[in-house]
Amino acid sequence: MMGNHFSIILLPTNKCNVNCEYCFEDKTDDRMSLDQLSIVINKALDHMETADIAALTIHWQGGEIMTMPVEWFERAYELIQEAAFSRGKLVEHGLQSNMIGYNARWNPIIERMFDNSVGTSMDFPNIHRKLFNGSATDYTRIWKYNVQTALDAGIKIGVIAVPNQATLDVGAERFYSYFVDEVGTSSFQVNTPFPGGEQNETKKSLGLDVDQLGQFFADLTDVWLERGYGTISLGPIDELIKTFTDASGQLPCIWQANCADEFISIDARGYVAQCDCWVTSYPEYFFGNIFETDNLTKMLAESRARRKFVDRPALVIPKDCIECDYLSLCHGGCPVRTFTFSGTMFEKDPYCHVYLAMFRKAEEVAAKLAGERARPGYRFIPKGFVGQRSANETVQVDGLPLPGRLNLVQIERR
Amino acid sequence: MGALVYNIPASKVDLYRGSNLIIRSANVKELTLSLARCDPTRVRFIQLLSTPADTSALESSFYSLPVDIHLKDPANEYLKLYDYANLLDSHPIRVSIEVAPGFGKAVKLAVSLNFSVKLEMDQPGPELIAELESVLDLYLHLGNVRQPIEFFHSLLLSYFRNEPASLWQIEEEDPSQICYVTEDGEETISKRFVDQKQQQPIRYAEIFQRQASSSSECSSCEFYDRCRGFFKWPDIQYNCGGIKRVFATLESSAKELQEDLSAYRAMEVQMQS
């Protein structure tokens, strides 16, 4: 089930305006009409009512989202807000675009619907992102120009970067400088690559040496601490450090207890699957089609494909994750990364070694940062169920002006 | 804590209407129905004695009451905890785990899913003591454990604050606070005592604790003030050597924490002057 918050990765178009070699989506020309969108939203709201879910976040992406008309989004926004208001539900929106089709006409809807914020993607060096009729260099030039234009218009830009071998070769310092100094973003996130969708020569070479990649993340953490800590958001490293410091970190979907509890994806044809990769490229993992069901809740509950995702942690964890000190942060990692490298989702994430390096580094950094004020280990303490009181009742250790997570006593290991 | 709390099977809810309650059942539907027949403000928590996969009834009901999920066979049941991860959105969750072989995995997964934990103690043998010490190590030292593990947590606090504590109370077996009602309707001290018929659980507990205190091990035990013979039931000859090590580790850890805090405060004063 889904808790009291629900997310949809919504692809109103499966069409894209660029030709990236490593894209995990198998594209089509399908687009969602406003009438179809209305059906999707109402069925999602029905599901929220049935499952007693209060809030929905729609992550809009494609295909490429900016191949849709601006006017479509203006009407879509009104349609969704009206429907949500009439049901007493809260809906928020996030936008992910390659920014190649961006122009100033998008600014008002970005401000109104997306909190003046856009997520985009770029690698450094860019090798795989290409135009249909142009090189990676052309792509980078247009992207950079459009991102600068959006930044100048006051739009907040968050960049997702996927490292390749050339990234590891140029190193963390140069990588960081590109995004922060040259592009001018104050928020970027580094994702690990995976060979999703139809195979090609590029995808065969996406796997990186895990030791090298782990070292890259460690180096990047050091560069960020030196140059950007407190001003630049660097995901997922900053959120990991927050997690170790005061448990406030928002970890990415790959490290949730079970992504099946968190979100679904719906594409322009109405297919429903776990995330954008599954919904565009793996029909055998579709949960169903939202246009062909009257009841999304029933579809999710009865889907055999979804059951595989629900069951995954319980099948993966006993193998060796249960012995790991960082089980609470990872839960076996990402099903799609596992599937695309291993051919099954019932193994742990192939980037386990990299994640371990990241967790260890983040823990070390959190301890060091806390050590500027106090040694790690000072904590506020909850009372829990003791004496049959509510588990969320907290009792604070008197007068502790100390950093640390809210509900833990931890003694440093000698 | 105030008035006595009755830990009752859901089937007995009509007999205890108006009392403070812990309601237990292996059946989610039975729990739901029993709550409809009592004042939910009187319910301290509900206890689920099984691990059904479908938790939807729990997610959308029960007035956000705390839920205790009981794992009787932790080594085989622990992976089912994933089915309950979303319950935290609507309820405080605790997992009560029998200290049986393999229970350490259940504790680790429970705290990894952000559930608090209560260890259901009996008289652990050497192998279980080793597993218990490993869990204690996890509680004290693992950086991403964010939830209390009882009885460790309350004992650590007690030593840290130099306050008295009772293991009987922490383990919810203090008859002055809780009365356990069996399926047959018998009132007793706790689940551990169901085979021991007592007319007055409080009186029986006093007699038992007096007996235990006169045993050679308890009479010279430095931890008796907090334990009060808890581990001497049912076999009063039980050797508490392993349990004493657990207590000693908690006591020394609390002392270490106190010393660190003193040092921190001194450092802070020094920095201000």
Summarize the structure in words.
The complex is a heterodimer of chains A (414) and B (273). With 414 residues, chain A is α/β, with parallel strands linked by helices. Chain A has helices spanning 34-50, 70-87, 107-113, 136-152, 165-170, 172-183, 201-204, 210-227, 237-246, 276-281, 296-302, 304-316, 327-330, 335-342, 352-371, and strands spanning 5-10, 55-60, 90-95, 117-121, 156-161, 187-190, 233-235, 263-266, 271-273, 288-289, 381-382, 394-395. Chain A has a six-stranded mixed sheet with strand order 3-2-1-8-9-10. A four-stranded parallel sheet of chain A has the order 4-5-6-7. The two termini of chain A are 42 Å apart. Chain B is α/β, with parallel strands linked by helices. Helix content of chain B is 41%, strand content 15%. Chain B has helices at 28-36, 56-59, 74-77, 103-112, 126-141, 152-161, 167-170, 201-214, 216-219, 224-227, 241-272, and strands spanning 5-9, 20-25, 43-48, 67-71, 93-98, 116-120, 149-150, 178-181, 187-188. In chain B, strands 7-6-5-4-3-2-1-8-9 form a nine-stranded mixed sheet. The N and C termini of chain B lie far apart (44 Å). Chains A and B meet through helix 13, helix 15 and strand 11 of A and helix 4, helix 6 and helix 11 of B.
Tags for this entry?
heterodimer, A: 414 residues, alpha/beta, 6-stranded mixed β-sheet, 4-stranded parallel β-sheet, globular, disordered C terminus, B: 273 residues, 9-stranded mixed β-sheet, 11 helices, 41% helix
Order of strands, widest sheet of chain B? 7-6-5-4-3-2-1-8-9
| Total number of helices of chain B | 11
The pair of chains with the biggest contact is: A-B, 57 and 58 residues
The helicity of chain A comes to 40-55%
- Strand order, main sheet of chain A: write it out: 3-2-1-8-9-10
Mean pLDDT of chain A: 88
Sheet bearing the most strands of chain A, described? 6 strands, mixed
The number of helical runs of chain A is 15
Distance between the termini of chain B: 44 Å
Q: Characterize the quaternary organization of these chains.
A: heterodimer
| Residue share in helix of chain B | 40-55%
Mean pLDDT of chain B: 90
